[in-house]
Specification:
Length: 270
């Protein structure tokens, strides 16, 4: 049976895990949502989902709790993503598990993918930066917003003018969890080269997601696809940094060209 969001722990009352159990991780296939967006097996982008978990703890051999911040990098080429509540339950299972050193992340099971893992210990907590996304602030625009579902027809670009290279940001992005209906909030950064994107239409487009039900990763891939199709840039990168839920934030990033992933700098709302 193909895993589905409705069969996942999301939106259900589930007892907290009291032991390490990789079986708690619930994979969700990316293919159905990508197919709905017209994306096939050959992806039109590269990128990754950048996760930060702030509630990781385990025991040392003497039974003393240890804590860390965990950063996970899941490549967008993976066949599946991990349902976020299942990751929270999985990480909770470490709290009563003894490790002689740093904890390790699941890296196997029925769905395999390369996962980058970085643990940040308490000695490095003070070096963790809070920084807003760089770029020209779209939210400065005073305009009317009337759409509450994604409206790609709002996007346009000045193809009869000289091309530009610029970075645009907005803190007004909101979508809904497709299972629970709860709101997800994010700051969005768009880097591109090509015909200049009309800023008012772009802001209206981003705001139009306010009643759209979609996982974080799906929303970013939809934004990327719409911008690429409607504005035809020569280079494009879309990053969304979502506020955390259950001690975890998810930050999808998609790019038209290979490049290092964005720095793990959380915004003030994260």
């Amino acid at each position: 049976m193909t895993p589905s969001p409705e069969d996942s722990p999301l939106g259900r009352t589930v007892a907290a895990a009291d032991r390490y159990d990789p079986g708690l991780l619930y994979p969700l296939p990316r293919a159905p949502q990508r197919s709905a967006l017209g994306i096939g097996q050959t992806l039109p982008f590269v990128g990754a989902d950048l996760w930060t978990a702030y509630e990781l703890s385990w025991l040392n051999p003497r039974g003393k709790p240890q804590v860390a911040i965990a950063q996970f990098t899941l490549p967008c080429e993976s066949t599946h993503l991990v349902e976020s509540k299942s990751l929270k339950l999985y990480l909770q299972g470490y709290h009563a598990t003894v490790f002689d050193g740093a904890a390790a992340v699941w890296h196997g099971g029925p769905v395999r993918a390369g996962v980058g893992v970085r643990l940040i210990g308490p000695a490095q907590f003070d070096a963790e930066s809070i920084h807003e996304l760089d770029g020209l602030d779209l939210d400065r625009l005073d305009l009317e917003c009337t759409h509450a579902q994604p409206a790609p027809e709002l996007l346009s670009a000045a193809r009869d003018e000289q091309p530009v290279t610029e970075t645009l940001v907005s803190r007004l992005f909101r979508s809904l969890c497709p299972v629970t209906g709860q709101p997800d909030w994010a700051s969005v950064q768009i880097r591109y080269s090509g015909a200049q994107i009309e800023q008012g239409g772009l802001l209206r487009y981003l705001v139009s997601y306010r009643r759209h039900a979609g996982f974080h990763e799906d929303c970013v891939e939809r934004i990327y696809r719409d911008l690429w199709a409607r504005c035809q840039p020569t280079r494009l990168a879309v990053l969304a940094r979502y506020t955390r839920r259950g001690g975890i934030d998810i930050n999808p990033w998609r790019s038209s060209h290979p490049q290092p992933p964005p720095a793990a700098l959380r915004t003030a709302r994260q």
